[in-house]
Amino acid sequence: MWRMRCARLLPVNALPRLHQNSQTVSLSLDTSLIQSVMRLDAPLDLVLDYTRTMMGALLLNPSPKHILMIGLGGGSLPKYCHAHMLDADITVVEINPDVIVLRDEFQIPPDDDRFRIVCADGAEFIRHPPQRYDWIMVDGYDGQGLPAALSSRSFYERCQAALAPEGILTLNLQADTTQCRQLTQRLGKLFEGQVLSIESDEGGNEIVLATSAQVMRSSLANFDSRWQGLAAPHRDTLAVCSTRIERALRKCPPSGNQTSDRSPC
Asked: Is residue 154 part of a domain?
């Protein structure tokens, strides 16, 4: 059983910085790049488009029971899921205790029987996960970008192994980078081409969703009914990005048709 232990497991050079004005609180890590934003008058809203796009996993699996998130940041995604997905059990793994200490600043709920924050290295956690997950979300940036430990083939092989049979892996990447292209291709090979790559409206972020061919086919065939079946908060959240997700689903090749020189959908 993993338990919260707020000690520095590794040297952490990404010191979190808070920025606040009359409307928002935001977080950065040793750079001017904003990692997370919260509206003071609507703390549950997903302000940044890349976080809304990551929630597009709802259109592939509308009712996940077990969710693993690697990377806490300002807690926008776990806070949203805790508030709007009452049947989901949520585990968040964050390596940096200085980030976890700021949870109250971002109104992240306390740990309870269906929500917990674990202070640990996500790459180590996924070596021996306590269970399999319907969703795994990776957004574990430090001040230098996505760490090497969260970029290796072995890490994503372990993520794939930790997924339930129809589980979904969602990854936030910096768009138009060598790392983005390499990781997208890597996931394409691991998941036999069943990968959606969706750029955020704000630019700068590429959201990659990987799952089984069965989930991809079912998601496309039932897209309209799934959209209609979403609760109102989810439809509001996905209103802008749903068309991009549907378009990516239509481009996705049949399982096994991925070739080494063909980009994932």
From this structure: yes
